[in-house]
Automatic annotation (TrEMBL), chains A, B:
Residues 44-223 form the FAD-binding PCMH-type domain. SUPFAM superfamilies: FAD-binding/transporter-associated domain-like, FAD-linked oxidases, C-terminal domain. It comes from the Bacteria. Its cofactor is FAD. Keywords: FAD, Flavoprotein, Oxidoreductase. It comes from Arthrobacter silviterrae. This is FAD-binding protein. Coiled coil: none annotated. InterPro entries: FAD-bd_oxidored_4_C (IPR004113), FAD-bd_PCMH (IPR016166), FAD-bd_PCMH-like_sf (IPR036318), FAD-bd_PCMH_sub2 (IPR016169), FAD-linked_Oxase-like_C (IPR016164), FAD-linked_OxidoTrans_Type4 (IPR051914), Oxid_FAD_bind_N (IPR006094), Vanillyl_alc_oxidase_C-sub2 (IPR016171).
């Protein structure tokens, strides 16, 4: 990435301003600061040279072409709600915001698809789909502000993934601007299609490093008409995790299955004035949304009571409030040097063991931990924090973090269930993937982006020289 | 592909026999003929130089390494039930059969996954999973004989995809032998995982052209406990297609939704002694398998009667018989010069229009057509045939075939919903994908297989020289 660290030449600025309107370009310090980071931990703060707001596909092509010609990196972003630093600026880059490309181009209820620009907010697509009894299923906690383009760049997960799958499962086709500014179309408008290599899946989750998604055709699902929500409190978090396996054994597929440990309940109570911790030490929030939701809730109640759970079926308002509380678990917090939310996934049978190990390692390192999990997917978000914010505390937290990653891998897990590698998780990727697999990905990166201008330094460890 | 067309040197044979056991290698004419083709149309019959049966990952690695050293193409195959010629031999190639690698390495009911060798037969995995109340959902019509490795190579679909997704959606991780004989592992054992580029999806459906799948971790789903099946007869096939949209509007998700037109019903009757054609002109076979299956069948009945359907709920035995009849629609037929089964997909709203167009174009060209469809996915299998098998008839059929492809694309469809490009559909790929997208795939092929020894001439149009 020899081009990073270079201030874009004045000619580039002049060319950009000529190619776009004046209000699509900024070097104002406030904008540079605002667009310097996403919500991931910042380990190496850099400001962009400029921020550019694309409004059309042609804008994106023009920006990418100009940047390529001048050897300036381009960091594309949607709402900047990513939490792995995938949209952090690199020195001297252009941040290319897609948030103004926010049109739903088509919503076809018979075909059960939508075509959207990348800046469409997840919740807005859902609102438009709901009119037709449809929904866009992937629902990252940030869904009220995050964009479909950003969701695609990170292959975002969410609560409803337990039943409906992740972003990749919802994406049928993409329009992508490549590193040379050309535009390609991948995939198909149909539900099924196997013509050629699966380029669509290759771009999904590639964090803007292989190309910039400027349009997407997504599959919609049926909006449920009957929803039953169980709040199940347990005496300890291990029993709650056992409840997850019990639901599996009962062959029930909840649409939402969230686990919250005691410290998480207390944190939510403190923030929201609720009294969850008073009801139990750990909470399993299970939602069923099929036409047989009532029957599923009945079977689930028996299964969870069998694990010692105190089950209450919540009315729709309270259920919505609980799910919303869970979604806002992160609150407005941005990860910092003294608080880091993790995102590992383990095979479901390892949940109990892993949670116990997390508690043990936090205690041993003298740092705090609270755990929430998309438990149906074995996807955990432990948040580690430093009680006393000094250098020793930060070192202890990082040691606990590293250990939590090692343990997840030891149990057959992954270092990122849904947040992506971005910048922050690069340091752990080689623990999960072999050097050969890493090199294969570097080769792919070099094939798609030979000059390394698309979001350099993200997603895969730094390029080595190709043989 | 300058290496094709060359007989493998005697040294290669000697080295193969030395690396494997004697009964893992054959040049017997009967074997060469048997392994020369899959079930796709044969337009250019070629025999392999030899057939090799791998029994271990190391066998595959040894064969690929030796073939690479001698510049001999390797065509990997499972049961050879593909219908696009993806496993047809190329001149002088080694056919590498994986059918002896048929061990289920692990089946973990708590994690809801299985690890399998590529030669495991789909039905055998399902039988093993059923013991635990689980199933491997993707069910190509060939599921009783086809292998998981072959299913992965073609990203096979099937009947249950309407609800459960295609092969890609079931594959979590892969072991792949690359063109240089090295072994890599992609993906994750967990349900979710976003570390690095999605190499797993890139290999799924790549027809053995990027690497050879020698192991897979797949996700299992819950075996349904209540199944309701409706046989719905309509006065014409267009009304049956309208029924598909009516079920969508009723927001019902059947696990199977198959459409059969009048000629298909007559063909089945003639083969199986059934009397389907006596019950109506077109059949919609709808199966529901959720806990609310009875209620879903009730709602579906009302919706389909609203479209003029004559609905009968079938008892489990008759339902199983009907689904089985549908699966065996192809019978033991192999596509030939005078009968070709197609595999296009269109957006669901285009189903009625497309079916009408197919009937019209067959009549105009003076050829026969019968249509079955995985209608829930908009995935149609029209079979064209020549009433009088002469040169003019074959030309007319090919003209109708070409037109059926053009029309599907015009309606926003794809040239292959689930069968793959293989060899037979290469001639149409450039109608669907731009030259730039094709070139991108050639570049990917060159990256993974620089010498072009892995299943050359399949999946993507012939390589042009890279710039």
């Amino acid at each position: 990435m020899s081009d990073t660290g270079r201030i874009p030449p004045r000619e580039l600025e002049a060319e950009l301003v000529a190619a776009l309107r004046e209000d699509q370009f900024s070097r104002a310090p406030a904008d540079l600061a605002k667009y310097a980071t996403d919500q991931g931990p910042v380990t190496d703060y850099r400001e962009p040279a400029a921020v550019v707001w694309a409004e059309t596909v042609e804008d994106v092509q023009a920006v990418v072409r100009l940047a390529a010609r001048h050897g300036v990196p381009v960091v594309a972003r949607g709402a900047g709600t990513g939490v792995s630093g995938g949209a952090h600026a690199t020195e001297g880059c252009l941040v290319l915001s897609l948030e103004r490309m926010d049109n739903i181009l088509e919503l076809n209820p018979d075909d059960e698809i939508a075509r959207v620009e990348p800046g469409v907010v997840n919740a807005e697509l859902n609102a438009a789909a709901a009119v037709h009894g449809l929904m866009y299923a992937p629902d990252p906690a940030s869904y009220q502000v995050s964009t479909i383009g950003g969701n695609i760049a990170t292959n975002a997960g969410g609560l409803r993934c337990a039943k409906y799958g992740v972003t990749r499962d919802a994406v049928l086709a993409l329009d992508v601007v490549l590193a040379d500014g050309s535009l390609i179309h991948t995939g198909h408008r149909t539900f099924k299609g196997v013509a050629g290599y699966d380029l669509t899946s290759l771009f999904v989750g590639s964090e803007g490093t292989l190309g910039i998604v400027v349009g997407a055709t997504v599959r919609l699902k049926y909006l449920p008409t009957d929803i039953r929500t169980l709040a199940v409190f347990f005496a300890d978090v291990q029993s709650a995790a056992a409840g997850v396996l019990a639901l599996g054994k009962a062959r029930l597929q909840p649409c939402i299955l969230e686990l919250l440990d005691g410290p998480s309940l207390k944190e939510l109570d403190a923030r929201n004035g609720s009294n969850l911790a008073g009801r139990g030490t750990a909470l399993l929030l299970a939602q069923f949304d099929s036409l047989a939701a009532a029957r599923e809730a009945e079977i689930a109640t028996a299964a969870l009571e069998g694990q010692g759970g105190k089950v209450s079926q919540e009315d729709p308002e309270e259920a919505a409030r609980l799910v919303d509380l869970r979604r806002r678990n992160r609150g407005l917090d941005v990860d910092s040097e003294i608080t880091v939310g993790e995102d590992v996934a383990v095979p479901r049978s390892a949940l109990i063991h892993y949670i116990t190990a997390l508690e043990e390692m936090a205690a041993r390192h003298g740092v705090g931990v609270r755990i929430i999990a998309h438990a149906g997917d074995g996807n955990l978000h432990p948040t580690f924090w430093v009680p006393v914010p000094d250098r020793a505390g930060v070192a202890a937290m990082n040691a606990a973090l590293d250990e939590s990653i090692d343990k997840a891998l030891e149990l057959g897990g992954t270092i990122t269930g849904e947040h992506g590698i971005g910048q922050y998780k690069l340091r752990w990727l080689a623990l999960e993937q072999s050097e050969q697999v890493l090199q294969l990905q570097r080769n792919l990166k070099a094939l798609f982006d030979p000059r390394g201008t698309l979001n350099p330094g993200k997603g895969i460890p730094a390029a080595r020289r190709l043989d």
